[in-house]
Amino acid sequence: MKQAMSPEEIKAKKPYLDWSLSEAEYDYISQQLLGRLPNYTETGLFSAMWSEHCSYKKSKPVLRLFPNKNARVLQGPGEGAGVVDIDDGQAVVFKAESHNHPTTVEPYQGAATGIGGILRDIFSMGARPVASLDSLHFGELTDAQTKMKVTGTVRGIGDYGNCMGIPTVAGETTFDPCYQGNVLCNAMSVGLMDQKDLQKGKAAGIGNAVMYVGAKTGRDGIHGATFASADFSDENATQRSAVQVGDPFMEKLLLEACLEVITKHPDWLVGIQDMGAAGIVSSSAEMASEGHSGMELDLDLVPQREAGMSAYEIMLSESQERMLLCVNKGHEEDVKKVFDFYDLEAVTIGRITAGHQYVLHHDGEVVCDIPVSSLTDDVLEESSEEQKPARIVAAEQAPAWQPHITDVEATLRSLLQQSTVADKSSLYQQYDSQVRTNTVVGPGSDAGVIRVRGTHKGLAMTTDGNGRFVYLSPKVGGQIALVEAVCNIIASGAEPLAITDCLNYGDPNDPEIFWELHQSVQGMAEACRVFDTPVISGNVSLYNENNGQAIHPTPMVGMVGLVKNLDHVIPSFVQQPGDRVYLVGQTGDDYAGSELQKMLQGEISGTLADFDLEPVRDYLHRLLKLMQAGKVASAHDLSEGGLGVALSETLFKTDLGMDLDLRHLTADQFFSETPGRLVVTVPAEFAADFESTMGGDAAMVGTVTNSHWLQARLANAEINQNVSELQQLWEEALPCQLKSKD
Amino acid sequence: MKIAVIVFPGSNCDIDIYEALHTVCGADVDYVFHKQESLAGYDAVMLPGGFSYGDYLRAGAIARFAPVMGAVVEMARAGKPVFGTCNGFQILTEAGLLPGSLKRNDSQQFVCKTVPLEVVSNRTLFTSQYQEHERIALPIAHADGSYYADRETLDRLEAHHQVVFRYAEENPNGSLRNIAGICNERGNVLGMMPHPERAVEEILGSTDGLRLFKSLLANGSVKVEE
Amino acid sequence: MTKVRIFVTYKPSVFDPQGDTIKKTIHNLGHDEVKDVQVGKFFDVTVEGTGDQVDATVKEIADQLLVNFNMETYTYQVMEEHQ
Amino acid sequence: MTKVRIFVTYKPSVFDPQGDTIKKTIHNLGHDEVKDVQVGKFFDVTVEGTGDQVDATVKEIADQLLVNFNMETYTYQVMEEHQ
Ligand SMILES: Nc1ncnc2c1ncn2[C@@H]1O[C@H](COP(=O)(O)OP(=O)(O)O)[C@@H](O)[C@H]1O
Ligand SMILES: [Mg+2]
């Protein structure tokens, strides 16, 4: 296949600018790295590999702030997924990935292939995916387009995960106008493995085979990586070419075949990696780089679905359900037999070579001959300008907003119907949350809990992020994202292990946005250190903008915790009449960015108060000890809507009520969103123990009752609400808003 | 008694049935791959849930042609216990071992939740340990679970006590006459949309499905006469 | 070589929730002039041979695989035929 | 009143996992004479009005709802037309 342009024409016409490679980068490549002009194929490879999505050239300096080690971390960032020791020779493997742009353009396939991609990351490490989570952020449910995006996205996640037979056990769904033109779809997968099966994406050993397995390569998703790294406008939306179709059935077979090779035939395999963004080029170059090897591939051998694909198209295609293996010389046929059994293709497309060159043959020509490291390691890191946003400077001068609630009951009822607060079961019911019969706690609780079959251990998992807080005060907002995840994990009775993240932001070339990124990562990193939850994997999604309007900075935290004894999994709803109700943590006047403010003002404003992480950690650890000792009946953390909403949620789906003395709180404070708080119920017999351990960090506020009423006295108001009625409002809100008028 | 759990490409509840029978009930169970043509030596066969062949075309439509299906049909004809849940039920109808079909849910959405059921008949190998008209609750997880058959077929099913499970409160998928599970006339082939294998351990929230497997094991290698 | 388009629909007596939902959505989008929507699938099948041979193949694959006669029916139409 | 049949298919460059799986099954059933299978959906839509009016409606509902232009294309054909 002829090159579409000569090197000289490329230099003159600069097509790479459309592929998001800058002129400075192009010059650096030709003058410093190659000492000649790159040809068309090479230019394409550089533009994909040097995109933000593959190279993290802008975000790297910021990502270095994250801690990523502790005694349990077996594999930190840099591989398909991070790996954490969970004792007994076992490990948990997890990672999150964003698929925001594809989901915005084509919700169903975008979300589906998002799940497909993250699952491949997990099984490429040698782990079997055991659970998925999804963090979704949409615009307000006011227009038909957004409703269709919600239904399409949820259906896409469901169809892919359900078909794979991997339960989706938790997630989050929020709604805010800032996501109207740019949906966030972050998917997280959690896998389980024996530590001895740990794999790396490595290619080494001169003469060893590079094998391509799985689906054929087509022209779909070409330039997906650069597409994901460039911002959006309605103009782009009509070009719409970078969408791939997922085939979960194929992926299920691929998963089984790969795990069979990895776990049963470790002597055949040198390394394995999935083909994600930038397809063959990124997987092969990264594997060669990791193994300090050279590599030579013959593109004519790549299984192709369409005739006449150019080298450039073959290398950059993002066709789904494909993996790359490095196989010890002599075992190519053995590997092929395993894939044959699953009716999958497995083809040797190249070899490991001496030296460090990356050489591609196509149609009898050498179409690429460059050092491996020029693609993977020599990327020009970009320093970015940053500037504190004017809105934050202004907000710091302005007086804090106070709600002045007069009708606390009506406020509670309205809050329960806000789309972000309302029951999400109509969405997550579309996910199989129980397949493989390990789900101890499914969606609808603080964290999902999966048992580790054959042991008495479990894994708790959650995703959390609140763009509103980060928008108002990026650093505190970053801390809160982590604290909320910790609270959700601890509320289920688990010990936080580590996190993955998706950093979703606008255009980093805007100094204010880069500042938000930098500050919020600092906040997260600080909190990670305090809670000893290192960042073991993650993903950056920049350029989340629509027609120049950026989303709220929305870092998503995906956390996994270890349940040491499944007998002590803590439910999020009340258990027994007579149990004591405690409010753990202090409540302040924290309304900036709250659901209450959004509801009453129509927009958010203000700045967040700084808070001390260490005291929160200390009382949460004491609470966890009490849980592990079997002294806590239920726990639920406070998030959107504050205490009022949390109390209601602990009563839903039970036939119990509460009688509470909250005279130390005002009606306003009933909905304040001070972070780090939980509602905990404790059997009366353990009340004394609980109080002596928790001291001033927990306040006894009442008891669980037999009547299905939420009754509370506040400093300046009273609440007397039938729980069934509250539950109905909460349950019906979302389906009603989603259903188009008919 | 030796039981085969069939693994089709795309099956994903195979392990759930296997574990329910093997780990929870202590039964003698094997996975049998779809390419195997014989089921010699097995006394019962289980078709698990999942998405065989991606459920492309229609749920269960392609699995019916798998090499192992000839042997499954033989087992059914021989009066040995044949059980299908979810995708297994869909395959049994596509293979003609049970009447009717499973259509897309009325909501057109996949639905995963626990629903109340009535045990309509305990006169099968699989339900003998339940009370007739007993209320139980089992998880469902499907997009194509709306049972459809023409009126005569439905009347015949009722007349011959072939309706084994019915949705007891809400009907989650639009299935006719609230049918959740049916058996053949001889009572040795049972298909149902709910997943009893997901309700066999307290830690998973319910044990309402356990007696289905216990019934099967208690009835041992019973062969139902024609 | 013959290219045949095989249309599969629910029998008229079988309720099709999909068509119904799409109609409602179309109305919500403001197109009240749309009075009815029915949904079906089609298979474009390229078969070696022509005429009766092709008819026989179409009938067999429809009977065996493509159509579930409990609830579906089909029709087909030859789109292209080359000797 | 006009009855229109709208055909929606994947764009040629998009992989159709369904068609592929069905083709394999047809081959397994012994019909090697079947060379290609592609799957599509069709919508039989009854629209008030005739001619250009109907064309406009079809175009709009296809654009907004029935067709996903990222990966699909459509054609349509008037089946019946009544004044
Ligand atoms: N997209 C989703 N997928 C799965 N579960 C979800 C999703 N959205 C919400 N949920 C579930 O709904 C419940 C409420 O979510 P959320 O309000 O975010 O909880 P929290 O405030 O405790 O983090 C949680 O159990 C969560 O797992
Ligand atoms: Mg929570």
Q: If interface size is counted as residues with C-beta under 8 Å from the partner's C-beta, which chains form the largest one?
A: C-D, 32 and 33 residues
Rg from alpha-carbon coordinates of chain B: 16 Å
How are the strands of the biggest sheet of chain C laid out side by side? 2-1-3
Task: Enumerate how many helices of chain C there are, as a single number.
Answer: 2
Helical content of chain B stands at 10-25%
Query: Distance N terminus to C terminus of chain C?
Result: 7 Å
The name of the CATH architecture of chain C is 2-Layer Sandwich
CATH superfamily of chain C: Phosphoribosylformylglycinamidine synthase subunit PurS
Please provide the ordered H/E string of secondary-structure elements of chain C. Answer: EHEHE
Bound molecules: adenosine-5'-diphosphate, magnesium ion
Shape of chain B: globular
- Sheet with the most strands of chain B? 9 strands, mixed
Q: What number of domains of chain C?
A: 1
Q: How many β-strand stretches of chain B? A: 11
Outline the fold blueprint.
The complex is a heterotetramer, with 1 copy of chain A (742 residues), 1 copy of chain B (226 residues) and 2 copies of chain C (83 residues).
Chain A: H1 7-13, H2 23-34, H3 40-49, H4 52-55, H5 60-63, E1 73-75, E2 82-85, E3 90-98, H6 100-105, H7 107-123, E4 128-138, H8 144-164, E5 168-175, E6 184-194, E7 209-214, H9 224-228, H10 234-239, H11 248-264, E8 269-274, H12 279-290, E9 294-298, H13 311-316, E10 322-327, H14 332-341, E11 346-353, E12 357-362, E13 365-371, H15 372-376, H16 390-397, H17 408-416, H18 425-428, E14 439-441, E15 448-451, E16 458-464, H19 467-472, H20 474-491, E17 495-504, H21 511-531, E18 535-541, E19 545-546, E20 549-550, E21 554-563, E22 580-584, H22 595-601, H23 613-628, E23 634-637, H24 642-651, E24 657-662, E25 678-682, H25 687-694, E26 698-705, E27 709-714, E28 718-722, H26 723-738
Helix pairs in contact in A: 7-8, 7-11, 8-11, 11-14, 20-21, 20-23
Chain B: E1 2-7, H1 14-24, E2 28-33, E3 44-47, H2 69-77, E4 82-85, H3 87-94, E5 101-103, E6 111-119, E7 135-142, E8 146-148, H4 151-159, E9 163-167, E10 179-183, E11 189-192, H5 210-218
Parallel strand pairs in B: 1-2, 1-3, 3-4, 4-11
Antiparallel strand pairs in B: 5-8, 6-7, 6-9, 9-10, 10-11
Chain C: E1 2-10, H1 17-28, E2 34-47, H2 51-66, E3 72-81
Antiparallel strand pairs in C: 1-2, 1-3
